[in-house]
Amino acid sequence: MTDKCKTLLAAAAVGALAGAIAAAGVVFATKRKKLKNQAFLKAELELEQKLRNVRVVPVLGLDGVEKADSLARALVEGGFFVIEVIFRPSAEDSLRLMSSTGAFVGAGTVLTAQQAASAVKAGAKFITTLGLNKEVADWCLDHAIPVIPGVASPSEVEQASRNGFTMLKFFPAEANGGPAGLKAVATPYPHLTFYPTGGVSEKNLQDYLSLSQVVAVGGTWIAPQDLIASENFELLSTLAHSTLQVVRGNVGLATSGKVATASIDHTARLWSIETGECLMSFLGHEDQVMSVAFSPDGELLATASTDKTAKLWLCDSGQCAVTCVGHSGPVYTAFFSPDGCNLLTASHDRTVKIWDTTTGECERTIARFDRTIHSAVYSPDGKMIATATDDHEVIIWNAAKLQQVQKISNHSQKVFSVQFSHDNALLLTASMDGSARIAEIETGSDKIVITGHNDWLRCAAFSPDSLKVVTASGDGKAKTWSAVTGKPLLDLAGHADWLRMAAFSVDGGLIVTASKDGTAKVWRADNGECIRTLDGHKAWVRWAAFSPGQNRRLSVGFGGL
Fold this sequence. Notes:
By secondary structure, this protein is of the alpha+beta class.
């Protein structure tokens, strides 16, 4: 073999070896890339699930860090545990503080890989970009950090999809056609999901969320700058919670859009919240109607009257189905058991009676009271009954055995209304002494004392989640309060005379009040706006109740004289 041939063979061998090494390197790199993609996809899937749980992400632009911790805690308490922080100077400190609250925090508007690295080091769990930023996207892929790259056109969507991204940020959403524009862009790519931000607000968020490919939206309206500046984090938390209820499609769905009222003109009435029209009158009592209550399924209406009876009416026809006869004095309140099988009534005759709602027969009587009974209610689980008499004591009974299990004597004057919290752990009371109190049932001790009205408190009621309280007073106002701190939230002023009661709707989005001025009013619970006045009774309205709608079960309730 000639030297030339040997040289050629050696070169070929070297080339083959180099090729083999290169091929092995490619295989290794491919495997390494595949492993990284699997880790990234796992992290992305976790983020997507969290976004689907909250549906709305507060987008925060903070200029300093001094309020970051309190702001994050307020949002988490309001239900928003996923937060996006715009990456600005001092953003790292904000991310670090917010992450310590338990929030799942991400960094937005990240422009460089260095910013992404800094954000993640500070605690960011995900990254969002304004556009298809390859530098940031590659860094996130390499470090298994979920990133939501921004897109605005089909070309950008296709490019992002080819690069392995399945969740994209549609930005700026409103400037690019809003929900209609997003639908047009997203429909050809059913395997992709979207997170629209930029111009999303309370007015259009449901339009975005109705699109099947939208996992969540991002918005700045959830944390108003004026509340942040004034450090009113309690109100911010409450408003966040109310927003979350709207987001989840609960507001207006947990009620049938109807309210029942009771009046001393001897009638009860059913009203449309939307129009204010009286839909039905319940005629049959011979004296004042003191209170009304819907059965948990919304099919029956109970009325209590000073004619010494309680009646059950069919809500679809107005026909009286059952009359409960047995009290020897005026009946002040009627309250359904959680399963709707029994009706609890409290009377001036110093007894509480339990009735079968099918037959109207009295099953049991609690007759151990020395004074008039103002209120008797079941706990949400049906295992307890609370009674308030014409003194300062509230007694809690075992509902099955009718044995006293607790006595709460925290008020200085008579108690008018009582209500259990949704978890059966707390009791809310309203008293002639001008206060409402939230007491722990197990110990009987006060947890929160609410004061601020200029007259008696006739009624106090929890919101369905027990995070807020509404009070009704002889000063002509209703007020809402934080049930966590006791701090005031909203004033509901508009009645011309004193208020008898106030209550939240089953979804917590609305409040109804009843007044001596002869009207009931329906208010928005988030901002205190009066949306309807129900005017038609010939005398003052003693009570009002929201219909829960068909086949819905109430989780909490309240009662009182």
